[in-house]
Amino acid sequence: MKLYSDTSMIYEGMANSLFLVEGTADAVFNGYIRDKRMRIASSLRRKGVDVERFNIVSPATLDSGAVRELILRQHPMLDEGGLLQKMEEYGNSCKAQSRSRLMFIGDVGYNAEGCSEVKVFCEDDLGTTEVEFSFKMNAFLSGIAEYYAGERKNTMTLSGGIRYKFPDSYEQDALREQDNYECLCNDILAESICGCGNAEVSPIMFDDDFNISLPLYPNVSITLEPLPKALYILFLHHPEGIVLKDIQSYETELKRIYIQVSGRKNPTVINRMFRAITDPTENLLHQNLSIIRRSFISKLNYNIACNYIPAHGRTKAHNIPLESEYVILPEIA
User: Fold this and answer.
1) What is the dihedral of CA 77, 81, 87, 92, to 10 degrees?
2) How far apart are CA 154 and CA 192, in angstroms?
3) Which of 140, 185, 307, 316 is 20 to 30 A removed from 131 (C-alpha atoms)?
4) What is each CA distance from 163 to 81, 154, 198, 275, 314, in whole angstroms?
């Protein structure tokens, strides 16, 4: 069993998910796992490990459109010619992917430097007979359980069964986690099959109509409705960060941004909307922050997307990690 950390595969809702990445030469093993996946998940639960979902990922099921999206997520700077070449290379890599892999996406948390990381358990030496399958799979599951037994004292569990490690300054009003399994599956395939690498961080640019573009990634389109877009611009205006429970302090500024972004000026509608977004008993603020997150992680691998997403690290405030000189915004009247 291999244990490694890879921040490019951190996605909301992905912790404690078990994956079978099917290889073309392991049809018998693939069938064995498909028949026993409920038993495998139950076995882990009996050993004290929460299992959110068992996912089966087959490269053969990806059509050309899905492959195109996958390559763009991993290599957003490619032009059309480079993209077509990568698609061909990826197709050949899929055909050559003969060995199946069992993967367990474990703890999502922070390392000693305060950076996010995820623990990934992987086994790809699974044998050729049912006896070997059973023996090696049980050893794999036992290894995961032993790791969790040692880590349990240092973890805290949030709603949804997702385990995190947080620095002491963690604030309880963190965003609720949402599922992004399709994005995660794509990145697991990319890492497992074609070993895609990182890309350079692009500036983010807003034109006079507040349309969003990433100049280094011409094939990537980020679209947001006026309210989440105004909220996103507010965070860009405050690189020091915003404490979510203090969002009421920014209501006047946020309204001004929203009016200019949306072109709407009806005071009754705007006041009602912003009472909801600044009311701590409502969930509208969290919903819009989640929309912002999904708009980036659905288009970019996380190790790129995280530069553009409002999140909290070692402080109580949520901020966007992107350096201010990488942000190009029109004036807000």
Assistant:
1) -130
2) 29
3) 185
4) 42, 10, 26, 33, 18
CA–CA separation, 291 and 297 (whole Å): 10
Cβ atoms of 57 and 22 closer than 8 Å? yes
Dihedral angle of Cα 83, 101, 53, 116, to the nearest 10 degrees: -60
Tell me: pLDDT of 115 over 60.
no
d(CA 330, CA 208) in angstroms, rounded, equals 6
HEC string for 40-90: HHHHHHHCCCCCCEEEEECHHHCCHHHHHHHHHHHCCCCCHHHHHHHHHHH
Q: What is the distance between the alpha carbons of residues 187 and 14, in angstroms, rounded to a whole number?
A: 12
Q: What is the DSSP string of 86-147?
A: HHHHHHHHHHH--S-EEEEEEEEEE-TTS-EEEEEEEE----SSHHHHHHHHHHHHHHHHHH
Angstrom distance (rounded) from CA 60 to CA 170: 42
State how far the Cα of 297 lies from the Cα of 183, in Å rounded to an integer: 7
Which among 318, 306, 169, 314 has a CA at the least distance from the CA of 247? 318
As given in the structure block, the two tokens for residue 29 are 């093993």
Task: Examine the pLDDT at 299 and tell me if it is beyond 80.
Answer: yes
Q: Look up the pTM and report it.
A: 0.69
- Whether residue 222 is predicted with pLDDT greater than 90 in this model: the reply is yes
Query: In this structure, what DSSP letter does residue 220 have?
Result: -
Average pLDDT over residues 199-226: 91
Residue type, 162: I
**18: enclosing H helix or E strand:** strand 17-21
> What is the sign of the dihedral through the CA atoms of 120, 124, 125 and 129?
positive
Greatest distance between any 2 Cα atoms in the chain: 71
How far apart, in whole angstroms, are the C-alpha atoms of residue 100 and residue 95? 13
Q: Give, in degrees to the nearest 5, the angle at Cα 202 between 199 and 203.
A: 170
